[in-house]
Write the structure tokens for this entry.
Amino acid sequence: MNIRQYMIVLLIFFSLSTHAQNTQVRHFPTPETVSTQILPLVSGEPASIWNDHPKTNQEWKNWVNQFAQHSIQQLPALRKQMQVTVEPVQFGGINGFIITPKQTRSENKNRVLLHFHGGGYVLNPGEAGTDEAILMAGFGQIKVISIDYRMPPDFPFPAAIDDAVAAYREILKHYPANKIGVFGTSTGGGITLALMLKAKAESLPLPAAIVVGTPWTDLSKTGDSYFTHEGIDNVLVSYDGWLGDAAKLYANGEDLKDPLLSPIYGDVTDFPPTLLFSGTRDLFLSNTVRMHLKLRDAGVTADLIVLEGLSHAQYLMVPDAPETKRYFNESSRFFNHYLAQ
Amino acid sequence: MNIRQYMIVLLIFFSLSTHAQNTQVRHFPTPETVSTQILPLVSGEPASIWNDHPKTNQEWKNWVNQFAQHSIQQLPALRKQMQVTVEPVQFGGINGFIITPKQTRSENKNRVLLHFHGGGYVLNPGEAGTDEAILMAGFGQIKVISIDYRMPPDFPFPAAIDDAVAAYREILKHYPANKIGVFGTSTGGGITLALMLKAKAESLPLPAAIVVGTPWTDLSKTGDSYFTHEGIDNVLVSYDGWLGDAAKLYANGEDLKDPLLSPIYGDVTDFPPTLLFSGTRDLFLSNTVRMHLKLRDAGVTADLIVLEGLSHAQYLMVPDAPETKRYFNESSRFFNHYLAQ
């Protein structure tokens, strides 16, 4: 090789490494400021799942089932630890689960929380979507109904939001709106917010309060932290992994900025009091704070909590971690404050 | 050159570029989600100041004066725009400025806000420290007293906090504590929080509410976003620029984790209601959220607002930007809610 050839090799190498930087996982010193319980997650390598790209419907289903089976294996121990029972149920034709704590706090005996699970509109079908609901029922000592909304590839948009509204309508037959709270993380937060838009459009009474953890408020790649936290968040890592594919699979050709897909583009006037969570490394930090600011601009009571050191939704992953307890205890307090008894 | 020599050159090049990455300014697509007014700041290159390292006392003074002169030139236009008058004053031997709006809102006529400016305990002496106070007086239509606390190299810790307490004591002679609010950004937020610790220790009544914008709560390099947002924040860029030097200059050999230097290590029980601000790119995001979480743990009313796309304290830099108005209007509302009339 001569100098010219070496220069070319060098240039190719640099252009490749510049490209790789866009999806590169970044590493940082072990933070002293997160709990020891959650530290292994915070300082761990991301699971390679983030960059999976299922191609066919069957590949999506296989991919989803693989993770669902893993999740379901954890549930018996979690139910035991949280002292809750879970039974399948149908609400107006929609599948769901009723999660009942062994002890219900006296002020919660006439209240119910409606839950939508996360997973990018593709993951966590059936029982696999109940973990957050189990934790909320246990920490909050309150009944939770978790909705197993339909998902793509078989049931793309608007199936999930249609199911959310149908379930909410059914629950309204049994509980007054002022004793109902709604919550969810990630996609579950997005559905919670989209449900408010749809309930307004259909003139349904809104629930007393909602909690949205790192909500997917913008399915298009819009929002600062999609870029600044790429490679920093070790759960989602990048919009350009499975996440962006899931957005398109769910949207099924509809505009990603449709407010029922991306509630950040909706009219949030008259929304109920809303508590939002994120983390300092969260790819969805902007999804969260943009909605927080929009709610405040609309005159809605909206509180924000950002958890130190955490990537997307890590507060769900270690039941014993103080960060997890904070999410559930702050949420329970918020519901307790705003729901009628 | 032979292949071996080229490999060595290549290795040196890579090791240099790896090292440079630690303090490298990162670049992102222009965000669609910040205002057009503040966009030039958000998408701009950082001023090279971030990596200045003054060595001697005289170098520090020259460096500080250079920026102070620039700041002071902007003030006449800002005072005119905000319709305020500024007069120098002394409070119990401490230098300060009284900022009086042309119109005071009727509910504010018996209230006062105490302000501490930012600048890493070294920048913004004298009038140069009054810009945030001018904006608050103008947006909130309320009287503000801005304290020109002493700074290193001549007056290191605890001069600043001693001056803060002396000024607060003096103001307590003229206003009941429940009609006083205290606020500041960055170092000004840190001083505000340290003042609460010191006031508690001296059994002074605490003010009705405080607002701390991206407060410097930890002068040691502890907290996740010192690392994750290094090179993302285009104002401070890195703790390892002038910022860390300023921490050491101010601390003057004292432990950086002394609570009066780093209030995150103090006992925040019984603090007044606190509103905290940060930005999604802020190097001090963790300084902010750690204090927010600590206050909530102590049972203090503490609200957090994180501004989309902003680096450290950029909400102070463009008076006409919606982000700026949000900081001052949310702060004014917060004070109005908690201060007695």
User: Anything to note?
Assistant: Residues 65 and 170 of chain A are 29 Å apart (CA to CA).
